Amino acid sequence: MLDNLKVLPDNKKLFFASDFHLGAPDGKSSMRTEKKVVAWLDHIKEEAEAIILAGDIFDFWFEYKNAIPKGFVRLQGKIAEITDSGTTVIFFTGNHDMWMYDYFPKELNINIYREPMKLEINGIKLLVGHGDGLGPSDITYKILKKIFGSKVCQWAFARIHPNLGIGLAKYWSGKSRISNEGTDTFELDNDFLLDFCRKNEEKEHFDYYIFGHRHIPLEIKINESSTYINLGEWVTNSYYAEFDGHHVSLIKFDALR
Fold first, then answer.
1. Is there a domain that residue 1 lies in?
2. Residues 88-112: pLDDT tens digits?
3. Which three-class secondary structure string do you get for the chain?
């Protein structure tokens, strides 16, 4: 289990990425993103002690009792190969793929997390998660998240035939910001995740805060000993972070190299 990892073995690293949004903005673009992600996984797998996928891996995901969304077999196959080799892979759910249940744990031997995780490895403290819903802002989204996360809402959606339910969800995803805008805008003094990091640092210290959700690759000092890193997104960019046991670095992946 990753949360029991206290010392990183020599020559091993932790890798972080998020917001692949597979399925968006269209099939052709999604396939290109998926192949890029698989190339990245091939690039890091020998060095990886663990791979942390920090939410919105899919632009939409819902597991019916006997059905899942079509596609994404290249990613699933690569993850199965990596976990079969003994490397840990974990998913954080994001606001687009919160309806993950037992398919990935059973089929791919990965763990699903729904809240940020605290890690302390080699004495370095990290807080890792998707990032949605943190801080005091965006009350409307927090209410919607509670509704969509409720057992009643999940039960009701599961009653819809997959052809209709997944079709409606794909239509909704087509209205999302990743499909229509790509990345967010960033204002240093008006960013809810940066604000969360600053306020949390007053209560509990972390050397690194690692989140996704904002779609902007960022590396910002909170104070002399704390850094906020945002992993960006992979529809228009392809950044990831690596932890070598001492430092976390934000790196752009060039699929053509």
1. no
2. 999 999 888 877 889 999 999 999 9
3. CHHHCCCCCCCCEEEEECCCCECCCCHHHHHHHHHHHHHHHHHHCCCEEEEEECCCCECCCECCCCCCCCCCHHHHHHHHHHHHCCCEEEEECCCCCCECCCHHHHHHCCEEECCCEEEEECCEEEEECCCCCCCCCCHHHHHHHHHHCCHHHHHHHHCCCHHHHHHHHHHHHCCCHHHHCCCCCCCCCCCHHHHHHHHHHCCCCCCEEEECCCCCEEEEEEECCEEEEEECCCCCCCEEEEECCCCEEEEECCCCC
Count Cβ neighbours within 10 Å for each residue of 233-256 and write b for 16 or more, e otherwise. bbbebbbbbbbebeebebeebeee
Residue 181 belongs to some domain of the structure: yes
Structure tokens, 182 = 């790509």
Asked if residue 8 belongs to a domain, the reply is no
Measured in whole angstroms, the distance separating CA 234 from the mean position of its chain's CA atoms is 11
Domain of 119, CATH number, reads 3.60.21.10
- On whether residue 150 sits in a domain, the answer given is yes
| Number of domains the chain is built from | 1
Segments forming the whole domain that contains residue 224: 13-252
Evaluate if pTM is beyond 0.85: yes
pLDDT confidence bin for 138, thresholds 50/70/90: low
